[in-house]
Structures are given as C-alpha cells and as structure tokens.
Amino acid sequence: MSTVEYGIEKLGPQVEADLSEPPATNDLDHMRPLPRISIHAFCESEETMRLMERCEADRRMAKVSFRINSGSILAAANMFASSPTPNLIILESAASPDRLMGELMELAQVCDPSSRVVLIGRNNDIGLYRELMRNGISEYLVAPVGMADVLGAAASIFVDPDAEPLGRSIAFIGAKGGSGSSTVAHNCAFGISHLFETETILADLDLPFGTANIDFDQDPTQGMAEAVYAPERLDEVFLDRLLAKCSDHLSLLAAPSMLDRAFDFGHDAFRPVLDILTQSAPVTVLDVPHAWNEWTRSLLASVDEVVITSVPDLANLRNTKNMFDSLRKLRPNDKQPHLILNQVGMPKRPEITPGDFCDPLEIEPIAIIPFDAQLFGAAANSGRMISETDPKSPAAEIFSQISHIVTGRAALKKQKRAGLEKVLSLLGRK
Hints:
Largest sheet: 8 strands, mixed
Helix content: 25-40%
Distance between the termini: 44 Å
Strand content: 15-25%
Mean pLDDT: 86
Strand order of the largest sheet: 8-9-7-10-6-11-12-13
Structural class: alpha/beta
Order of helices and strands: EHEHEHEHEHEHEHHHEEHEHEHEHEHHHH
Radius of gyration: 23 Å
CATH architecture of the largest domain: 3-Layer(aba) Sandwich
Number of domains: 2
Number of helices: 17
C-alpha cells in the first residue's frame, strides 16, 4: 500500500509508543478553536456517538461543519462513493487488524487525496499502529477516548502552528477590464463550496469597485478594508467579525465599494490577510482587480493558483500574453496560470477564434464560456449565482468543471473532452 492510499499524507515520523495507555490528552482550556473545516464521524457504539455530540457542542468547534453518522468504515466508503469526502473523517471500528486493513482499503478507493483520517480502534497493537501510519492514517486512538483526545487529534492536524497552511489560495484576475473575471471568481467560489461541501472564503480585493457584495445580495458593514488597514488586529476572532455568511459553506470578505479615500497599498499589504485566510478555511478565492502594481504582483506571486479570464479580442490577447510571460518569471517553480475564455460568441462582434487566441500562448483554456446576456444579467440583478438561476444551463456545467480543475479534482485533459468540445459545438466552431 502507498502512503496516500487513504487520501492522507503521512504526518511526521512513526512513533514507537506504548499504546497500553490512551494518547496524551491536551488541556481543553488551552486548545485553540478549529478552523473552518468539515468533519464526518462514523460511530459504531452509542458511547462514541454521545462523545461526538459533546465534541460538536464544544465552543472550539463553532466554525466546523460537523456531521455525525452511525455506521462502520464500510458505511463511510458507501457514502463517499457518491459524495465528496470532508477535510477530516473520524472512524470507529472494533474489527480485527486484518479485517480493519481490508475495510480501510475499501475507503481508500473513494477517499479524496486531501482528506485526513482519525481512527478509533480497540486493538492495542504497536504493529497495527505502524502499519496505519505507513498507509497514511493521521492518528490512531485506542478506545476508550475522551473529548480532549478527539479535539486534540483534530487540532494536531489543522491547528499546529508549525504546519503548512490549511487552505489553498486561488486568485482570479482579468486580462482586461470588463472580461468578467469577478463573475467567474464568484461563481467558482460558490461552486467549490456547494459541490464539495468545502468551507470557502471569497475575498474581494477590489476595494473601490468590488461587486461581490452585490452578486451575493449582501450588505456587510465591515470587510476587506478593516482587514488590510489593521493587520496588527488580524486574527481568527477578528476575521470572524468581518466575514459575511453567503451560504452553508461560503463566507465573504467584502470590499467597501466606496470612494471616500484613495486605496494605495504597499507590495506586502495583503500578505497578512492572505495568511490568516489560508489558516482559516480549506479554500480561499481571491477576486483580484485588473491592475498591475506592486501589491498585485506580490499577491499573484504568492498564491497557489492563478486564473486569468480573457475575452477573445486583440487587446485581451496582448495582455494575456504579457501576464503569462511575467507570471512565469514571478513563479518559476509553479505551474503556469489557468486560462478561461469568456463571452465567446457575442453576436455581431468580431472575435479571435479560441484556437488562434491560444496558439501564441501555447496553452489550452480550461473553459470557454459562451456569451449569454440574458442568463448572466438575470443572475447579477437577482443577487444569485448561475447554478442557482439555471442549474441546467451550459454555463452552470462549465463553472462546475472549472471548480473541479482549480481545486485539483479533475484533470484538464478530461475537462477538454467533456466540456470544451461541447461548448465549441454549441458555438458552431467545431
């Protein structure tokens, strides 16, 4: 078995500990709250079920999307065969070591690579512990366990100050004003949170002219301005006060969208904001305004993924080419940005064909979004996303596919076959 068969990266060295006593517990009084993550627990016993209910009610779990299920490891495998896996899966099993490894193998077939697993078992066996650690289980707890054991195991994975940031950051920027990058970013943020039931934060960085609050029909009194102008106050508690809830798994850090001041920033002005966002949620979507200055360059150089939205005309092609060339220099060890062609097929507008647009860039777009003024206008005017306005539309399917690609859940090759050729056919360009 590989070290990621259960969708979990192995954490640290194997510990040759005496498992005759429960793992050391953390003092709950000094334990930090868990970030915005999703947890599913599968309990075989009533005792563990009651324990999970107590954990769910604890204040440190206030930001966690927690789901408690009665069932075995195989029940978890059956559920996740048709639904996305959460950030953390807590399993209880009284199975023998041989049977336990077999059931975990079933779960491995459907477990997302980014998910972590904590296992509560009955077998006090150092050999089993080593085998579980080798195969990617994040923590093995020998029953009986308490609240401090469960919360401590989760905290050791997601709250460790020396660990890598919890979340991935995805920056969306337009090649030219009016390319629709903000609309794409907002719909993708909603899609990621809805499709994968993943806690997602959408941060609108266009402080004077941001539209995220309008697109989600929100009117928060605080947001991005308070975060960027008071970095010394920025922590998880302060961030919670600034976020507006858009849906079950999507929160918004809105732009003030006011012109009462000049919004000039230094090159590292948004770094503290990005750091706290990636520590607070598995996915952060950044709506970056069309600009090229010190802070946008610094931000685009530091995020995990960059998505450039372009319209198929000459000015967009020039700007896209320049941005790709500059970002390759800023991010020499990262993969190149994703490209989205938007507003394709606008009536009576001369356009560069997708093939001619992409040839000088030497890249295939991850999506081609057809022009649909009625659908996009209706969604914008009602403060709803495309998948809410018309879930069966081609655009809704495209946003779903983009969400899969930018989060690493689908390959571009599959997207091209399943999505782009279909859209090109609809546009009469095949």
